[in-house]
Design goal:
Elements lengths: L1 E3 L13 E3 L32 H11 L11 H29 L2 H10 L27 H14 L5 H7 L17 E8 L4 E8 L5 E8 L5 E6 L4 E3 L10 E11 L2 E3 L6 E5 L2
Parallel strand pairs: 1-2
Antiparallel strand pairs: 3-4, 4-7, 5-6, 5-8, 8-9, 8-10
Helix pairs in contact: 1-2, 2-4
């Protein structure tokens, strides 16, 4: 006779018994759920600020078709990535802006419903998404990641060069090598066209510091504080002091950590900003 260790009414020295281990309980473990794909790392040529991203996407969509033959690109893939870029530009731009404006009405409406006063029933607002612009069609998920992958294809094309890269906006910011000792930040200025006049994109490398303390002066005047920036680039979109008149802007920066600037000033960078 075989007995289990947890059988009731049996003793360890009962004659005629052969002991066997108790059966294991049924497993209740579930298979591991599939892992979500990790989002693609944003590329260094792609703007960090959401407000700048639709412009980049629209520029890319407007211009890439013109390089199809020069770079020997697949026309069907070019068309698909143009559609992806325009869809992302609309979603990040007009749709996101409208959705955020609608979200701002939610709390006041709830307060009115719960604690307001008046003689008429409260009418709950509804979100009406902006209409898709001409030529924009909804795309499958992952549109921006597909654009990034296509940029790699473009850069590997035999006919690709810096002129094309700058026109498409797909060249990352080049920063000079660190100076001996690494006591000062490294910055670079890039002029871009703004709504009223040119704007300055200041790219930088933090070299492990928390951020940069940035100052500027115009036409040789006094240095003024601009910003503490922890993410490159910094965008200087100030209007010209005299509308329509170009001006020379100079920039310098120090490292910033734990609430205080430190280290040496970097070499002064200078650019002429016009209309």
């Amino acid at each position: 006779m075989t007995a289990l260790w947890n059988n009731p009414g049996t003793t360890w020295n009962q004659p005629g018994l052969v002991w066997a281990p108790a059966p294991l309980p049924p497993s209740h473990t579930q298979p591991n759920p599939p892992k979500k794909p990790k989002p693609m790392k944003r590329q260094d040529y792609f703007p960090n600020r959401l407000g700048d991203q639709p412009e980049w996407l629209t520029n890319f969509a407007d211009k890439i078709t013109g390089y199809t033959a020069v770079l020997n690109l697949d026309p069907d893939e070019v068309a698909a990535r143009v559609a992806d870029a325009r869809w992302c530009a609309h979603t990040i731009g007009a749709w996101r802006t409208n959705a955020q404006e609608f979200a701002g009405t939610i709390t006041p409406t709830v307060e009115m419903v719960c604690s307001g006063s008046g003689a008429a029933p409260v009418v709950l607002p509804g979100f009406t998404a902006p209409a898709l612009p001409a030529g924009v069609v909804a795309q499958l998920p992952g549109a921006l990641d597909r654009v990034f992958r296509f940029v790699k294809t473009i850069k590997n094309a035999p006919g690709f060069n810096d002129i094309i890269g700058n026109d498409l906006g797909v060249l990352g910011s080049e920063v000079p090598p660190p100076p001996p000792g690494g006591a000062a930040p490294r910055i670079k200025l890039i002029l871009e066209q703004g709504a009223a006049n040119q704007i300055v994109r200041l790219t930088f490398v933090k070299d492990g510091h928390q951020g940069l303390h940035i100052e500027s002066r115009i036409n040789g005047g006094a240095w003024v504080f601009l910003a503490i920036d922890t993410e490159s680039p910094y965008l200087d979109d100030r209007a010209l002091q005299v509308p329509g008149t170009p001006e020379v802007r100079e920039y310098r920066a120090r490292f910033w950590d734990k609430g205080s600037p430190n280290g040496d000033w970097c070499d002064v960078a200078k650019v002429t900003v016009g209309v």
